Amino acid sequence: MIEFGDFYRLIASGPLSHWLNTLPAQLTAWQQESLHGKFRQWFNAVDRLPLLTPERLDLLHSVRAEMDAPLADGQKAGMENLLRNLMPWRKGPFSLYGIDIDTEWRSDWKWERVLPHISPLAGRTILDVGCGSGYHMWRMVGAGAQLVVGIDPMQLFLCQFEAVRKLLGGDQRAHLLPLGIEQLPELAAFDTVFSMGVLYHRRSPLDHLYQLKNQLVSGGELVLETLVIEGDSQQVLVPGDRYAQMRNVYFIPSAAALEGWLAKCGFVDIRLADLSVTSLDEQRRTGWMTSESLADFLDPDDRSKTLEGYPAPRRAVLVARKP
Fold it and tell me: Does the pTM exceed 0.70?
């Protein structure tokens, strides 16, 4: 079973210590009552991976771990088989001792769009909401973060994260907890909070923005990345049953409307840092994610539209500060 004792000890004497009033009971209940039917299978794959300490580790430009001498073919094949038991891999890519996990998303491209526009992460305590497999968490560590806490209720992502962490020598600078943002108390303890690819999945987007704000220290920075549409400050798309074949998409505002939402929630120094249309090279089917991807969700005769006739995915990065 995945243990969280190292994380509890890590936060026991810092600004997150009051989280220990509620967190251990939450995670104990999760382990007793909420495990996915495949969790044991996924955990066994993680458990069978070796604990390796890389002789060369690059988290600044990628997530890459290497030894001076290549792994034996049999060990490498065994590790790759265990990692493939954790498919589909959506956020990445990872390069681990010659095993290249070619994920559905080129999350490194998103990181390169985000990083130039945010406050330096060196020495910061960071929360990554909806962190997926934790790819961006490792990039945050590479940028100098003191501690990165990721939350995501998807248990496969937790196992993927723990698999990568094990192959990075058990690095304690990043921790993933199987929780949603609504399960967190008002911690007011993080210097930077990231919410990337989450807002459009929330039935109440303003509540989500308030929840993010409640996790920040005074003066802390929010980095928000989400789907947007073109339009003025009053434009918001409310899709029907599906958007790009996703069922749980509720509100897609224009970038200008999103700035208004942030202001309404009390954020200041709000700025649009990046705006880009998602390309078929950035999100695609791979050998590590073999089901449908973006190309299957767009109108084959007009790639500027989804199958449902809505504008194709356009993503914005906004940066704001809590007063």
Answer: yes
